[in-house]
Amino acid sequence: MSKLSHTTKPDRKIYGNCQVLSPDNILMFRCDNKKIHWYLNRNLATIISESPFIIRLNFHPNGLGNHNKDYGLTKMENVCVNCGTEKYLTRHHVVPYCYRRFFPVNLKAHNFHDVLSMCADCHEFYEIKAFDLKKEIASKHNVPLNGIINKADESFVKALKYSKAILLNDRIPEKRLMEMMDCVRSYFGCDFTTEDLEKLSQTSYQTICKTHGEIIISSMNENEILEFIKMWRKHFVDNNDCLFLPENWDIENEW
């Protein structure tokens, strides 16, 4: 049994399939019980049926959600899309979160298409393949998986550290003190004064870190991001049996 099996309940459900209707009884979207009760607790909707759970909004929304979008209204089965089991289901993001979190807002809003249910065993097996693709992306774009850290200039950091030590500590061994002063002198390029040390010691600096996903996505325009999404979908299909994909799920879907 996979490690993921120990962190999920055997009877967990990924999809609620509750229906939300417009005031004109148009099916707008499906969601889980939590979202249904969000509307009900605020008196924004009325219960039409409890089995299946259907509510109707008490107000006219700005849009009709997923109306006329085949996949957006599809009833989602609580089974592993790969093997069909109903046990130990987990939520799998087809496009890894490390990339999706940096998508433009308009693309993030359509995350539902790329969240699929997988059992813990199938999920863990595929993540090994997904990691291989991440390594390929890292190599292609020359961006390490652990991101890039832009550290402050090393000579500056040393000079800053030593300037504080020289000002605060009068017990530094003479040999060590001379080494530290030489380092500071080298940084300034000339002899320095106590005032120079005080100014330097009060200087602050930042270590700038950028994640692998942030660097990759920031280098793409929207069309390239769409192709990036399709690449991950194709990789998912090619590396799984995918015998139980939801109806209307499509690699080419662009909403």
SSE blueprint:
Elements (H helix, E strand, L loop, with lengths): L17 E4 L5 E5 L1 H9 L3 E6 L2 E5 L31 E5 L3 H4 L4 H4 L6 E5 H22 L6 E3 L3 H15 L5 H15 L5 H8 L6 E3 L1 H7 L3 H17 L17
Parallel strand pairs: 1-4
Antiparallel strand pairs: 1-2, 3-4, 5-6, 7-8
Helix pairs in contact: 5-6, 5-7
Detailed description of the structure:
- The chain is an alpha+beta fold and 255 residues long.
- It has 3 domains: 1-9 and 76-143 and 220-255, no CATH class; 17-75, no CATH class; 152-206, no CATH class.
- 40% of the residues lie in helices and 14% in strands.
- The protein is built from 9 helices and 8 strands.
- A 4-stranded mixed beta sheet has the order 2-1-4-3, with helices on one face.
- Helix 5 packs across helix 6 (174-188) and helix 5 crosses helix 7 (194-201).
- The longest helix is centred in the middle third of the chain and has 22 residues, at 120-141.
- The mean pLDDT is 89.
Amino- and carboxy-terminal Cα gap: 37 Å
What Rg, in angstroms, do the CA atoms define? 28 Å
Q: Biggest sheet: strands, sense, closure?
A: 4 strands, mixed
Domain count: 3
Structural class of the helices, strands and pairings?
alpha+beta
Uncertain stretches of 5 or more adjacent residues: none
The helical percent reads 25-40%
Q: Can you list the strand order of the major beta sheet?
A: 2-1-4-3
Mean model confidence by pLDDT: 89
Helix tally equals 9
Question: Overall 3D geometry?
Answer: elongated
